[in-house]
């Protein structure tokens, strides 16, 4: 269940695969789920596990405020692939960490109560989705510079593209010569201004310090 032992290469590989298309362990913002998994690690994942390393560096920046992150801590085994408890088991009915969104004190939920919960959640999500919003976006051209001409540029681009955030969309890229056999990665992205900032991008990109020397903004245009 879940990631397994995150102090082993096998567990770290499971974590890396899980984060290939996710920014966080649960949801779209840092939460106590990230804290539980982060604390289970013995240190930073190796650089070849770029998804896990990107997530680790990002969550590490929240260490001073991790106790204030939203959510309720659960057992490590409840996170990750196949990490959710079977709700039909006796243990899950008595689990003190379960969150009752509707304030029910019943130890055994009826099928009708479950159906009602699902309907209320669906109605709530539909109501949120219908709210009109004006989304401000920007197109950003980034220059990502390697350390030297021996840097694996394909791997560096893979690491950069592994960064996933709500409101971030990666576009085209190319390698541009800068001299002495060195090339920089020039990559386009579109961001939602309220969700993604240049500082966030720089922090996560330069966290791949085995490949990236620095990052600059080559062009910035409002859409």
UniProtKB/TrEMBL annotation:
<comment type="similarity">
    <text>Belongs to the EF-1-beta/EF-1-delta family.</text>
</comment>
<dbReference type="InterPro" id="IPR049720">
    <property type="entry name" value="EF1B_bsu/dsu"/>
</dbReference>
<dbReference type="InterPro" id="IPR001326">
    <property type="entry name" value="Transl_elong_EF1B_B/D_CS"/>
</dbReference>
<comment type="function">
    <text>Catalytic subunit of the guanine nucleotide exchange factor (GEF) (eEF1B subcomplex) of the eukaryotic elongation factor 1 complex (eEF1). Stimulates the exchange of GDP for GTP on elongation factor 1A (eEF1A), probably by displacing GDP from the nucleotide binding pocket in eEF1A.</text>
</comment>
<dbReference type="GO" id="GO:0005853">
    <property type="term" value="C:eukaryotic translation elongation factor 1 complex"/>
</dbReference>
<dbReference type="GO" id="GO:0003746">
    <property type="term" value="F:translation elongation factor activity"/>
</dbReference>
<feature type="domain" description="Translation elongation factor EF1B beta/delta subunit guanine nucleotide exchange">
    <location>
        <begin position="137"/>
        <end position="223"/>
    </location>
</feature>
<dbReference type="GO" id="GO:0005085">
    <property type="term" value="F:guanyl-nucleotide exchange factor activity"/>
</dbReference>
<dbReference type="GO" id="GO:0005829">
    <property type="term" value="C:cytosol"/>
</dbReference>
<keyword id="KW-0251">Elongation factor</keyword>
<dbReference type="InterPro" id="IPR036282">
    <property type="entry name" value="Glutathione-S-Trfase_C_sf"/>
</dbReference>
<dbReference type="InterPro" id="IPR014717">
    <property type="entry name" value="Transl_elong_EF1B/ribsomal_bS6"/>
</dbReference>
<dbReference type="InterPro" id="IPR036219">
    <property type="entry name" value="eEF-1beta-like_sf"/>
</dbReference>
<protein>
    <recommendedName>
        <fullName>Elongation factor 1-beta</fullName>
    </recommendedName>
</protein>
<dbReference type="Pfam" id="PF10587">
    <property type="entry name" value="EF-1_beta_acid"/>
</dbReference>
<dbReference type="Pfam" id="PF00736">
    <property type="entry name" value="EF1_GNE"/>
</dbReference>
<feature type="region of interest" description="Disordered">
    <location>
        <begin position="80"/>
        <end position="114"/>
    </location>
</feature>
<comment type="subunit">
    <text>EF-1 is composed of 4 subunits: alpha, beta (alpha subunit of the eEF1B subcomplex), delta (beta subunit of the eEF1B subcomplex), and gamma (gamma subunit of the eEF1B subcomplex). Interacts with elongation factor EEF1A1.</text>
</comment>
<dbReference type="InterPro" id="IPR014038">
    <property type="entry name" value="EF1B_bsu/dsu_GNE"/>
</dbReference>
<feature type="compositionally biased region" description="Acidic residues">
    <location>
        <begin position="93"/>
        <end position="111"/>
    </location>
</feature>
<dbReference type="InterPro" id="IPR018940">
    <property type="entry name" value="EF-1_beta_acid_region_euk"/>
</dbReference>
<feature type="domain" description="Elongation factor 1 beta central acidic region eukaryote">
    <location>
        <begin position="101"/>
        <end position="128"/>
    </location>
</feature>
<keyword id="KW-0648">Protein biosynthesis</keyword>
